[in-house]
Design a protein that fits this description.
This protein has about 350 residues and is an alpha/beta fold. It is built from 15 helices and 14 strands. GO terms for molecular function: ADP binding; ATP binding; phosphoglycerate kinase activity.
């Protein structure tokens, strides 16, 4: 596996360096991908180990598992200032189940728990909310900064406040739509989250209805709210992404064998005019399949118009959004880039994040 974007890894370095300076034995926990409780060789954390050693200029040992007597014995022999990286936590299904026994096994590996994973603080996972029940716990430097900066935004947003939500993770973002319709002056939607809402509205966009739980959440949203802006056209291709087949069309003209992969020119025009008015912009999730050059135009042009708004405080967050900004060399044009996507949106929507609550 190759690391395409190391933004989150970089952001954890100050906390690790601080702990090394204080003479701590540093035991790092993380997850990668969705192995569904099984060992998947391509999802081992070796590339993370290599990248951490590159930035820290420090030797790091990685274990073959994340719990067990062998790891406990290794930690007992470690010297102050040494680092051990545990293997992918999600190789155990108990990680995503907030399993009490798994939490107790992990707590055998340390004396103090530090959470520096803001991007996962909205998850009820064992390593986020289970361990703090059994160990003295605190926030890392990155988590502290995320809370400090985003709290200011939450308490006193500049107006007009424009929120842009896209990406493919529908379930984690759909639940904050109603809150942002109250808090923001305009809410612009793209990506799979916009597609899901359009389908529930009865618009033909070439894809089936989303899961029942998602439908229930969408039905609670005031879809006639004038603050809500959905795509009016899109860049369309076959669901099989057949080479050479590409067209632009209005929403509602998509056939069942087709799919929308990006917002269209008319949608871009509408979104741009709204963004130009903003004094604060919060963005999480690309507006199309930006990884493919055929479908990058929407995300790229929206990123560019945001970066040119010098009167607005600009915030972006989430792994795919960060990857897009890096691809288009625009990440430095934003005032603050959060490591969290869903976590950032939930925090700014006023939701209590389980990972932060667990530290209190």
């Amino acid at each position: 596996m190759k690391i395409l974007d190391d933004f989150k890894i970089k952001k954890t370095i100050p906390t690790i360096e601080y702990l090394i300076e204080k003479g701590a034995k540093v035991i790092l926990m993380s997850h990668l991908g969705r192995p569904e409780g099984k060992v998947v060789e391509s999802l081992r954390l070796t590339p993370i180990q290599d990248k951490l050693m590159e930035y820290l200029d420090f030797s790091i040992t990685k274990t073959k598992d994340c719990i067990g007597k062998e790891i406990e014995d290794w930690i007992n022999q470690m010297q102050p200032g040494e680092i051990l990286l545990l293997e992918n936590l999600r190789f155990h299904k108990e990680e995503e189940e907030n399993n009490d026994n798994f939490a107790k096994e992990l707590t055998k590996l340390g004396d103090i728990y530090i959470n520096d994973a803001f991007a996962d603080c909205h998850r009820n996972h064992t390593s986020i909310v289970g361990i703090p029940k059994y160990l003295p716990s605190g926030a890392g430097l990155l988590l502290e900064k995320e809370i400090k900066v985003l709290s200011k935004v939450l308490e006193n947003p500049w107006r007009p406040l424009i929120t842009i939500i896209g990406g493919v993770k529908i379930a984690s973002k759909i639940k904050v739509i109603s809150q942002f319709l109250e808090k923001a002056d305009h809410l612009l939607l793209g990506g799979e989250i916009a597609n899901a809402i359009l389908v529930v509205k009865g618009v033909s966009i070439g894809q089936p209805l989303p899961e029942k739980e998602v439908i229930k959440k969408i039905e609670k949203i005031s879809l006639t709210n004038p603050k809500l802006h959905l795509p009016i056209d899109g860049i369309i291709s076959l669901r099989t992404l057949e080479e050479g087949y590409l067209r632009e069309g209005a929403i509602g003209t998509v056939r069942k064998e087709e799919k929308i992969y990006d917002i269209g020119i008319e949608t871009i025009k509408v979104f741009k005019e709204i963004i130009k008015l903003a004094k604060m912009i919060v963005w999480s999730g690309p507006l199309g399949m930006f990884e493919n050059e055929k479908f990058e135009k929407g995300t790229k042009e929206i990123a560019e118009v945001i970066s040119r708004n010098h009167f607005a405080f600009k915030i972006a967050g989430g792994g795919d959004t960060i990857s897009a900004l890096n691809k288009f060399n625009l990440i430095d044009k934003f005032d603050y880039v959060s490591t969290g996507g869903g976590a950032m949106l939930e925090f700014l929507a006023g939701e209590k994040l389980p990972g932060i609550e667990a530290l209190k």
